[in-house]
Write a structure and sequence with these properties.
Elements (H helix, E strand, L loop, with lengths): L1 H27 L17 H23 L3 H9 L4 H7 L4 H21 L5 H19 L4
Helix pairs in contact: 2-3, 2-5, 5-6
């Protein structure tokens, strides 16, 4: 009985050991993993965005759901069926431009709040504000 358990464990250990040795040998080879200069990962706000991505999504869902007139959970359920926020809004007789303008207003308020708290500069705020409508349009029409 014990032999039945020991044999698979030894085989698995040998396989894992050989994978580990192969992985170490591969890691020892000279490969360049440096991020190119123009890549998004080198942008100063990339780390912040990556850390706050879930909160941003939650807030976008909450604002969209309140404008459409559904709960955030119902909106997420609709999105999981393969619809975009714009499609869900149209089903509830709400125009896409209304949802987009509400999201832009909410984002502008957050940018103004960050500017007044000296978290971003005036130039950064202007650049973000200029890019918001296009990004939000893309978000509202994206099928998840």
């Amino acid at each position: 009985m014990i032999r039945k358990f020991i044999a698979p464990i030894l085989v698995a250990g040998a396989l894992l050991g050989s994978l580990a040795v192969g992985g170490i040998a591969q890691a020892a080879t000279a490969t360049s993993t440096a991020v190119p200069p123009g890549h998004a990962a080198t942008h100063p706000g990339y780390k912040w965005l990556k850390m706050h991505r879930k909160a941003i999504r939650r807030q976008a869902i909450a604002v969209s759901a309140s404008i459409i007139g559904v709960t955030p959970q119902a909106l997420v359920a609709e999105l999981k069926t393969g619809k975009s926020v714009g499609q869900v809004a149209a089903e509830h007789s709400v125009s896409v431009s209304t949802v987009e303008s509400a999201l832009v207003s909410a984002a502008d308020a957050k940018v103004a709040q960050a500017l007044s708290a000296k978290q971003i500069s005036q130039a950064q705020a202007a650049r973000i504000t200029a890019a918001l409508p296009a990004r939000i349009d893309k978000l509202v029409n994206r099928v998840f």
